[in-house]
Input
Amino acid sequence: MTRGLVVLIGIALFASALSLITAQHRSRSLFIDLERAQVDAKRLDVDHDRLRIDQSRLSQPAYVESEARKIGMKPIDAARTVFLTLPAAEAKK
Output
């Protein structure tokens, strides 16, 4: 009986130690994943800030006008503007 009890306690101790090792390994793996996610979040924040700066620079009227001139667009000229008018019957629809 005593020998059986010692074997049973030994098996329980082994299972407990194995469970502890597994839990520690899982904990370390999750911590590494958390650190990687935090680094990625910081990188994405930097990218987001850079993109917001680029967007504000690219949306400036002077930049848009200079880029339009580069591709051959010209400023609005009242002499070349054509206004279309709808008849009164179609305007009510």
